[in-house]
Design a protein that fits this description.
Layout: E1 3-9, H1 15-20, E2 23-29, E3 37-41, E4 47-52, E5 62-68, E6 73-78, E7 83-88, E8 94-99, E9 105-110, E10 116-120, E11 127-130, E12 136-139, E13 148-153, E14 159-163, E15 168-172, E16 178-183, E17 190-195, E18 201-205, E19 210-214, E20 220-221, E21 231-236, E22 242-246, E23 252-256, E24 262-268, E25 278-282, H2 284-288, E26 296-298, E27 301-302, E28 304-308, E29 317-321, E30 327-333, E31 338-340, E32 347-353, E33 359-363
Length: 365
Amino acid sequence: MRKSILLLVGLCLSLSFISSAQFEVYVTSGNGPSASSVKKFDATGNYLGDFIAPGASPLNWPQDILFIENNTIALVSGLNNNAIFRYDGSTGALIDTFAANISGPTRMKIGADGYLYALEWNGGARVMRYDLQGNFMDTFTNIAVNNSIGLDWDSAGNLYVSSYNENAVYRFDPNGNYMDTPISSGLSGPTTIWFDATGDLYVCNWNGNFVKRFDTSFVEQSNNFGTISKPEGFVEMANGDLLLGSGGPSSSVRRYDALGNFIASFATGNGLANPNAIYIKQSQADLDERSVDSPRVYPTIGTRFYIHGLLKSNREEIILTGINGQWTKQIELKEGNYFDADDLSDGVYFVSIDGGQPQRITVKK
């Protein structure tokens, strides 16, 4: 069945809208079996306790966390476990092992096809692909990227993977075939990578204590981040601010504006150590009021955007609520849960679903 969508988009974010959204921030912590944990903070950085307490599960050096199935399930990759674990999304209690046939899993992301993409630090060092029930689908990439620890997609659907020890960023086409290594110099222990709204690529450098920015031709550009001790872990907030993890002796999560200007320390102390993954999750109270189950838009750059997330069966219409109400456009969600934005001008748009936390997309042809 085709579902009609009302897409209401704008180029600025309403602060009053943000204040109504409720969310929690989850941060991985620690690098050993007795210290590994996931800590929880509120929207302003106040500590809410341990989601996964140190020593409470077999978790050994967590590398990433994400929530699926309407936030009822949390997936956490354990570098030294050679496994991805599945936890109760509310209590943090261990359920089982989501995936075990992976050697040193690091970063995880859900792609436009709805599959989980997970990096391998060791072993074959490939990008592994799973369905969201934990069934192994395939080895997605055709060559190894040793010590891979960062991934993101560009507007063409090409996959980028960072190599920590090789100080490089690899590029693969949408089918997982190696294309080239567009960045192979000037890096120092690259970890987390992400594309911004303009298509520029940012690379955290754990050994170098800096973030580098590259334009679409992979020419290095200036940025405002300055010195950050052991940067790793990144998430974008609804208003465009960025949260970055900072390791070292004084581990913290730091808040920056969209241009990379430091605002304040978002979270610190409470046993936080080596924060290398950050995830923003809507509160369950917020989700219970919504008509769709934690939908997400993938990818964030391009012209075709998928709505990932289980739609409630009694809804035929999805209302996407805009940011500032400058204009509206009626479109249809096609079979496969996607919409095309070919007729929109290139630029940044914010999309929210049923009044949920807005998600930024960039239309780029």
